[in-house]
User: Which sequence fits this backbone?
């Protein structure tokens, strides 16, 4: 069964709210951040060339809701020049699905979607080696949900390990790191198995204090 869909681009705006508590004498900082969800309205043209369904350039609007999230970040000094940090993040992925009108009418279902919300946990340690250089290591864990996988979401949970450092020059911070992730697998609705997948990421950021 061959199915094709073309969607137009769409831009929406969301917002971020946050609050933080700090005690600089012990390097304590706790922050709570809320990111709003947004709903995209995509103009969609679908083609399902089958006499049984008869979809030929059917046009409709597909609503796709991107999830809201809530993140608790924390850090605290545990020894001289040593910092423990981490975060707990809840994301409402259960609202996300791709359900074009023609596909739903023809099959009674959706193209893809997630049934459960996701929790992500991160814990790390940072160490200042000098006034200019600090290094860190961290572990991030995202629990699997057991949902069926699909081509748009071919993993279920992950565990990643990252290392990096920050170099300070005057009012500029240069931060770089590398992260290795072990991705959780599973099967999709067509019994296609995804397993033994990993990912490797690199990142660099530059920040200025003023």
Assistant:
């Amino acid at each position: 069964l061959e199915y094709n869909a073309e969607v137009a681009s769409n831009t929406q705006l969301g917002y971020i709210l946050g609050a933080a508590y700090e005690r600089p004498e012990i390097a304590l900082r706790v922050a709570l951040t809320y990111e709003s969800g947004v709903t995209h309205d995509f103009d969609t043209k679908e083609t399902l060339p089958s006499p049984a369904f008869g979809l030929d350039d059917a046009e409709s609007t597909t609503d796709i809701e991107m999830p809201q999230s809530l993140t608790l970040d924390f850090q605290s000094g545990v020894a001289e020049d040593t910092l423990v940090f981490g975060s707990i993040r809840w994301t409402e992925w259960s609202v996300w699905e791709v359900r074009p009108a023609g596909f739903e009418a023809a099959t009674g279902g959706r193209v893809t979607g997630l049934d459960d919300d996701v929790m992500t946990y991160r814990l790390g340690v940072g160490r200042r080696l000098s006034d200019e250089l600090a290094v860190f290591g961290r572990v991030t864990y995202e629990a699997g949900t057991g949902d069926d996988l699909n081509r748009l979401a071919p993993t279920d949970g992950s565990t990643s390990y990252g290392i990096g450092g920050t170099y300070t020059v005057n009012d500029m911070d240069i931060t770089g790191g590398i992260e290795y992730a072990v991705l959780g697998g599973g099967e999709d609705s067509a019994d296609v198995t995804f397993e033994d997948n990993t990912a490797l990421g690199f990142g660099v950021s530059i920040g200025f204090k003023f």
The mean pLDDT is 89. The two ends are 59 Å apart (CA to CA). Residues 94 and 114 are 5 Å apart (CA to CA).
